[in-house]
Amino acid sequence: MENLIALLVAAPLVGAALLLCGGKRLDRTGHWIGTLLAVASFAVGVALFADMLGRSADHRAMHQYLFSWIPVGGFRADVAFQLDQLSMTFVLLITGVGSLIHIYSIGYMEHDERRRRFFGYLNLFLAAMLLLVLADNYLLLYVGWEGVGLASYLLIGFWQHKPSAATAAKKAFLVNRVGDMGLSIAIMLMFTTFGTFAFGPVLAATGATSEGKLTAIGLMLLLAACGKSAQVPLQSWLGDAMEGPTPVSALIHAATMVTAGVYLITRSGAVFNAAPDAQLAVVVVGAVTLLYGAIVGCAKDDIKKALAGSTMSQIGYMVLAAGLGPIGYAFAIMHLVTHGFFKAGLFLGAGSVMHGMNDEVDMRKYGGLRKYMPVTFLTFGLGYLAIIGFPGLSGFFSKDKIIEAAFAKGGTEGWILGGAALLGAAVTAFYMTRVMLMTFFGEKRWDPKETHPHESPKIMTVPMIVLAVGSVFAGGLFSINESFVTWLEPVTSFAHGHSPVSATTVTASTIVVLLLGVGTAWLMYGRKPVPALAPRGSLLTRAARRDLLQDDFNDLVFVRGGTHLTTTLVQLDRSLVDGAVNGTAASMGGLSSLLRRLQTGFVRSYAVQMLGGAAVLVAATLLMRGV
Amino acid sequence: MNPVYYLYLAALLFTIGAAGVLIRRNAIVVFMCIELMLNACNLAFVTFSRMHGNLDGQIIAFFTMVVAAAEVVVGLAIIVSIFRTRHTASVDDASLMKL
Question: Which spans are transmembrane here (chain B) (predicted)?
């Protein structure tokens, strides 16, 4: 079975190559080829999963060696795949949700003349992400990591005729580069510390390495994760990434890209376990981002940007859980999977709404759409209930566990983290209810003459229904007998957290804050009509509309600061460095024009010089012999 | 006869040659003075060879003669061609490459 692992990556990669190099003759069949290969990859994943389930927990990891990539002396970098329980979970999520998004895109992109290219990029995205989670060493992971960055750039800027989309794509790429720098430094540090970057040896050697080095590696890995997973301080690209077609947003937020950071931290768990300072940094980043994203999500009127804020916040939960160590890794991944279901469902739902509303994204111009789009309303509604953590649905099980684990961190930290996570849950309930009420309930705020809301075709609604089913049942299924935790335990290790508050209290308070959030949202947006033009709002609202001034901050500190720095450096270079070089050249020139006077052009004066020189040589020789 | 006298003669010839090179303007004369210096050296070589009782100096003298013969060929050719173009053989006039 091991030999099938490469097929997982190869299928979408072949698809990307075919569709991008195939030219116009594939215009009419391209989307089917792309979808078929994504589904094929999923089928291989399921077959491997079934095979894996048939073996005992200790013998589930599989390994496939393809070829040696860089063999130089004692150094080796292999192209080899490792499929353990963690990778398997990601493979199923990526290919499963990815395939559904492919199917949905057939309908969504039907009238786009560059649809073939779009599917090529989607396949490339899947292939890169699969390479990332299947690699058995950090260098190959880095290849996938960069591939994901490239594919996201191509897809966010897919409608490149819009300047805003082109800018957003560049922004996403550049911000990601900052994170990538972290990963490359981490890999170099690993190489100098351990002499290798294969997962096995590196993670096994963490026990015998100084904590300082591990902290440095951990912080660099965290920087990388911040870039890919849109965590504070590298979160600014996520909101603008909404410029891409909606299926792309679904793919980035649910199956690929933003989950990569969580994967990296979980995979490198051994490093973080041995470096408490780095782990603390992870937790802080997670907690800050989960509140940051939630606050941003509350103020956005653009349905996709509100959902983007929510993704940031939910990934914050995962990073927070991953920073808690063995008590949190499994829950981080569990939340990642359930989030994959409901966030993909929500984004596809948002796409379906836009599809029926002439691509309008402003929620203040929606209203009362539940009658016109019953299937979208139902699936979006189930996703909504799942994300706010309604008891019994997926989000409830996974988020509840994370909040519990945060409390179990212990001490003051535990209370702060748990409090932040609870507060985040309340705000999540608020802004998601707001999205729901503004879109599907209340008065119509659109012009019936121009807009004719309608349900989307079957090819779009069926994937939404499948995802809605996943959003409802996945969490419960994972929680029966802690099956998900048991499944992941051999890879991520697991320890039961000892919370100062009982599990029942946590669950009860989660439900209370949930009701509080929903209630507040209903008071503000459900009971009274929503104004079609956004009110001025409080200072916080206005800041949140501008993504809490992240772009202004980056502009002030990095763009302007960078410009000043380079101007100063250029001037220093001109005056100091160039001055020294030019001065040396000028003084040499002056000296040589003096020496040039000796060259009179008269042969006999040269003869005198030669004779004088010879005489000096002879005199010197005689003197030396005399000594 | 004391071989030192040969050395005195060689020194005298060399000095005459060097003075000629420095003082005379006519290229042909300068050229002959160079030959005189070369031959003074040859004389000194041969004398030293005799004084030390080995053949090294004599062999060097042969080399010098060969080089001098080659030099005469090239040098005279240059002088003749300068004379043909300029109608003079003064070494001081051949200074076109100075600034």
Answer: 6-23, 28-48, 60-83
> Does the pLDDT value for residue B99 go beyond 60?
no
Cβ–Cβ < 8 Å for A62, A5: yes
Helix (H, G, I), strand (E, B) or coil at A138: helix
pLDDT tens, A277-329?
A: 999 999 999 999 999 999 999 988 899 999 999 999 999 999 999 999 899 99
Helix, strand, coil share of chain A (percent; to 5): 80, 5, 20
CA gap B56, B46 in Å, rounded: 9
Q: A609 to chain B nearest CA, in Å?
A: 10
Residues A497 and A404 sit within 8 Å (Cβ to Cβ): yes
C-alpha to C-alpha distance for A426 and A297, rounded to whole angstroms: 13
Model pTM score: 0.80
Half-sphere exposure of A336 (CA within 13 A, CB side): 34
- Write out chain A residues lying below 8 Å of B99, CB-based: 596, 599, 601
| Nearest CB partner across the interface for B22, out of A596, A600, A608 | A608
Element (H, E) at A73: none
| Domains of chain B, earliest start first | 25-86 (1.10.287.3510)
Q: Which residues have CB under 8 Å from A556's CB, separation 6+?
A: none
> A328-363: buried (b, 16+ CB within 10 Å) or exposed (e) per residue?
bbbbbbbbbbbbbbbbbbbbbbbbbbbbbbeebbbb
* Enclosing H/E stretch for A530: none
Provide DSSP, A306-367.
HHHHHHHHHHHHHHHHHHTGGGTHHHHHHHHHHHHHHHHHHHHHHHHHHHHTTT--BGGG--
How many whole angstroms separate alpha carbon A492 and alpha carbon A509?
29
Q: In one letter, which amino acid is A8? A: L
3-state secondary structure of B53: coil
* Chain B residues within an 8 Å CB radius of A596: 99
Structure tokens at A305: 């940007």
Cβ–Cβ below 8 Å for B95 and A602: yes
Q: What are phi and psi of A200, to 5 degrees?
A: -55, -65
pLDDT for residue A601 is more than 90: no
The type of residue at A330 is A
Q: Which residues of B touch A608 (CB under 8 A)?
A: 22
Q: How many residues does chain A have?
A: 627
d(CA B50, CA B39) in angstroms, rounded, equals 16
